[in-house]
Amino acid sequence: MTMTRNWSGTLTYSTTDVVVPRSVADLQEAVAGTARIRALGTRHSFSDVADGLGVHLSTEALPLDLVVAADRRTATVGSGSTYGAVARALEAEGLALANMGSLPHISVGGAVATGTHGSGVRLQSLSASVAALEVVGPDGTIRTIRRGEAGFGGSVVSLGALGVVVRVTLDVEPTYRMRQDTYVTLPWSSVDAHLVDVLSAGTSVSLFHEFDDSVREVLVKSRVAEGADDVGVPDELLGASRAPVDEHTEVTGDSHTPMDGSVGPWLDRLPHFRLDATPSHGSELQSEHFVALDDGAAALHALRALGADLRPHLHTCETRAVAGDDAWLSPTPVDSLAIAFTWRKHPVEVAGLVERVEEVLRPFGSRPHWGKLSSLAPEVVVARYPRFGSFADLVGEVDPGGKFVGPFLERLLAAAR
Fold first, then answer.
1. CA-CA distance, 185 to 197, in Å (whole number)?
2. Is it true that domain 177-268 has CATH number 3.40.50.720?
3. At residue 363, does pLDDT exceed 70?
4. SS3 157
5. Where do the H-state alpha helices sit in 46-181?
6. Which residues contact 133 (CB under 8 A, 6 or more apart)?
7. Which of 249-263, 271-285, 396-410 has the highest mean pLDDT?
8. Please, what CATH class does the domain formed by 67-174 belong to?
C-alpha cells in the first residue's frame, strides 16, 4: 500500500505529493516551505479527514525518542510512533498507559487527533491522556500547548487543523498485569436490562455481535492488582458462559492477544491484537457511532430491527463503553456507548446501510467517529458539538491562511459559519 491511499485501500487521497521527514527539523522546513499541507499518520481513517489538496506529510519516520518526566507521571514520544512501539518503550522503563485502542498499530498523533478510544466505563478516550503537544505551525516554528492552558481543549482532538503535531506528552503509570476472558452467547435481554453491568464486568469490555439472536462474545479484560497472583473471574456473566480455554472464537487467532485467562503484561492484554502481528489485510470498511451510555440499551434495541439487512454486509459490530471527557471535539463528551461496525468491502451497499444506521440513531443524537464513514451532513455534525464555534475561531487564530485545512475540514468550517 502506497501513501496515496488509506490503510484499507478504500480511499485514494487527492494528492500524490508526499514528503517523509526523518527529523523534526526537516519537518519544520517542509511545513514552512509549503503552501498547503496535511499530516498523515498510519492512514487508518476511512473518512477523508486526513486528505489534502497540497502536500501530504507523513510522520511515520519521526523518531520515537521516549523522554520520561522526572516524576514518572508523564512521558513524551514522537507523534508518528505507534501505540505498540510506545508500549514496548514504556514497559522497558517499568511504565504503562492506562488505556489503548484495540489496534496497537495506529499512530499516537493520528489517534488522539480523531478522538480514537479504547474500552472501559471508567476509561476515557485516548486524547484524554494527553498532557501536552508540540506542534509545528504555518511558519515552521514549534509551539507547545499544555493541559490547562487556553485553547488546549480544542487542540488535542483537532483533526489536524492546527498544525503538524511532532511530539505528544502522555500520562503514564507504573506497569501492571491483566488477563482476558471470553464469554459466549449473552442474551439480548441482559443487554436491554443490564448493559452497564455487562460493560462493568472488567477494566475493559467489548461486545461482539451481528444483531442476531444473541451477543456472540463478550471480551473481558481485567487488571490484576499489584501483589496479587490473579483476579477472580466468574464462570457466568448475566447468562453468558465463559468459553473454555481451548475454544477458538471469532476474536481469537494468531494475530490476537491471549484470551485464555492467563495473566500477562498490560501491553499483551489491553489491545485486541498483538504488537508484532498484522491483524488484517484491509478487507473492510468501518463506521462508528457514539450515543450517551444512558441511551445505549435503547439504541442497540432499535438497531436490532435492521439485523437481517445488516448481516450480509457485516463482519461484526463491536460495542464498548467510553467515559466522557471535555475536549471540544470529543465524540464522547459524556459517558458513551461506541457502536463500531466492521463492514465487508461492499462500498455501495455499506453506504446505504450507514445512512440507515444513522437514521435509526438520530433520536439519540449520535456522533460519528471522525475517522470513519458517515452519511451525516456537515451542518448536522457541527450542530452536535456546542464548542465547534470556539474550535473554528481557534483555527482562524492559529492558521489564518488555511495551510492545514483539507476538504473534510473545509466542509465543517463552512457549515459553522
1. 16
2. no
3. yes
4. coil
5. 83-92, 108-113
6. 144, 145, 155, 156, 165, 167, 168, 169
7. 396-410
8. alpha beta
Residue 322 to residue 289: CA distance in whole angstroms? 12
Mean of pLDDT values over 160-181: 97
- Annotated domain spans of the chain: 67-174, 177-268
Residue 43 grid coordinates? 492512514
C-alpha to C-alpha distance for 371 and 213, rounded to whole angstroms: 30
Each residue of 135-161: pLDDT tens digit?
999 999 999 999 999 999 999 999 999
**pLDDT, greater one: 294 or 226:** 294
The total of other beta-carbon atoms located within 10 Å of residue 318's CB is 22
Report H helices in 307-387. 307-310, 347-361, 378-383
* Residue 351 grid coordinates: 453506504
Average of pLDDT values for 384-395? Answer: 98
pLDDT of res. 251? 45
- Cell numbers 457541527 correspond to what residue? 382
To 5 degrees, how large is the angle CA 55–CA 161–CA 353?
A: 90
- Per 3-state DSSP, what percentage of the chain is helix, strand, and coil (rounded to 5)? 25, 30, 45
Predicted confidence (pLDDT) at residue 1 exceeds the cutoff of 50: no
CB atoms within 10 A of CB 10: 17
- For residue 40, the number of C-alpha atoms closer than 13 Å in the C-beta half-sphere is 30
